[in-house]
Amino acid sequence: MVIRSQTALLLSTGAAIAFLGAIALLEPHLARFPIGPDRPGMWYEWQLVEPSAAARASAWIGYALHQIAFWYLIWRAQHSGLR
User: Is residue 15 part of a domain?
Assistant: First the structure.
């Protein structure tokens, strides 16, 4: 399956806008999670004081999927035969 670059750009821009909209809509619900104190260099501002198992799992699963997707794209590019 070949996706034109313009189509890929439109799809990725649409996905980014959808995520932005989801964050904006969920913002009132996200305020109930306490965040830790500001500790420059040692703490992410949005890091939970007591992260739950679901929070850790969602972070690691997202990271793993990101890595798999990028390694797949690299593999596809290397085996596409284009120079």
Answer: no
Q: Hey, what amino acid is at 20?
A: L
If one compares 77 and 18, the residue with the highest pLDDT of the two is 18
- Centre a 10 Å sphere on the Cβ of residue 28 and count the other Cβ atoms it contains: 8
Q: Is residue 63 part of a domain?
A: yes
| CB contact at 8 A, 43 and 37 | yes
Classify residue 77: in a domain, yes or no: yes
Q: How far is Cα 61 from Cα 66, in angstroms, rounded to an integer? A: 8
* Structural domains counted in the chain: 1
Q: Is residue 59 part of a domain?
A: yes
Express each pLDDT in 6-49 by its tens digit.
Answer: 999 999 999 999 999 999 999 888 888 777 666 666 666 667 77
Q: What is the largest CA-CA distance in the chain?
A: 52
